[in-house]
Amino acid sequence: GLPAALPALPLELTVLYNSLLFTVGSSDSAIKGEAEGIRQGLLRVLEACGACGQDLGMEELWEKVLQEVTVEELQAPLHRLGALQAVWWLAASQLGSVAGLFHLLSTAEDPGRAHCSEGQNKLLSMIKAWQVPPEEASLPLVQSAKDLKEILCTAAAFLQGLQELEAGNFPTAISLLEEAAGGFCSKKILAQIYTCLGCCAQRMGKPQTALQHLKRALQVDFQCLPALSHVAAVYHEQGETDAELQALTLLYEALGKTPPAAASPSPCLLMRTELLVHTPVLTSLLRRHHPTEVKYLLAQRCLQDGRVADAVEHYLDFLSLLQEGLQQQVPLDGSSVLPRIPEVFLEAASALEQAGRHQDAITVCEEVISRTTDLIPRVLQVEERLEQPECSLPGAELAGRLLSQKKESLCCLAWRAAGYLHQGWAWAKLGESKEAVTQFSRCLSDLLRVQLHGSDIKQTENLQPEVEVLQKIRLLALIGRGTQFLELGRHKQALLDFQHSLQLSPGDPAAASYLVQALWKLNRKQEAAAQWQKFSQSCPGEDGQQQGQGRPLPLYLVSCLEQAMFPHSEPLARSIQDYLGAAAQDTS
To answer: Which spans of this chain does UniProt mark as TPR repeats (predicted)?
Structure first.
């Protein structure tokens, strides 16, 4: 409450500087908001000089103080307080304000020195151009302004590097991040910088450089486990499955261990780089996977690579982890690598089928079927284009909610139908053709709930992803049931299913081959030969292109697609060629 007095202000500003540093250092949390104490200090300075600035913003207030206050004894305390203000602005990513402040600080000392050379980073040049005021023995500091300058340089380079990385300006980002890596920071921050350098190199298509940076991050601080996640991602992009699985295994083991207690920061460093850098892009790059997510990635990669035994082991481990309250452990903000839980069950069933554990696969699918039964309406009407309405339109919120509910119902229907589909193939592998037909029929009966309006069901390219999956399940169920009808000698019913398959997906190689086989078994050899010639004359790459069109097939359907492939192509082709050769001789 004492009036401001010029003789006491150097001490007053130094006490303010030290107290703000103590406040930040004791909280040990990211700097946020404004430093109100700095504003009050500047107003006290103006008051002592007979001026006022109550109505000014912080940038205008600093400009007024540095331009109008010329008392020599106040310059050093004001410059130190200016460095502290830059810390708060930098933590808020107000880079323009920081550059403007250091321009004022430098021109206040020497009007000709605040100059940025061409090609240099403006903000870093401004900070480096600032001359740190000398310390006075009578006014001790809890952290020197020189330390603050080094921290500001490192944090400014790091923040700008992250901004350029997010914007896709990778060469500039690498230059700035390398500048930050050579700055004043802890091992923890240095490891984070190397991780960001690795991510930048990965996005530039330089996997080996990325791996070098990421391995350097782990050498600096092995607790920087996000670097190990990115190592696995780089190996995945390169198709190096062994190395990827090794990295994921190491990551899973490290996540399961109790991390060593973090070393307490040096008492001399109340202000540290980690308190300034907390941007969303950094949070995203350094997101720490939960062990269950890594376990799922191990299962998924093994299944994709055909390592069925390992996939089964990992999926069963993952399903056991569900008992530990997975929903409370994995983030629900969309950043998790986990798909919806029914899809994981279906992938596990797929792995069990491929491992020959058909009864276990049937049991896992039954769990999916029972859990989704009550979530599916009797009839689902789907238009050709299910578009999200404009937010500005009346009732858009209600329409969006209805669309979301319809999508969810379609997903539940797809999962249940896929459960029946997997059970059908599992019973087929067990030699139980009648039970297989029953499950395939249940799958097809479920899919009759979907009524498509405004489009031909043959043309799925404009339909929603959920409907495309349903159409693929229907195709696989028709082929599957047709194969079991053939096993049971019910060739006419098999023929109908294969004909319906081709109506749903014209040119499908499996459906076409099975159609020819059904005609052949019905002794309609001339028709079979004609159909065989028709499909054989189509371009060999056509089918492959057709299979590759649209969105990728869900992983849980890949094994069903493989099981639906026609296994007797060569023997059937030879029989038809012999038949055509004999027919040609008879004609001649």
So the answer is: 475-508
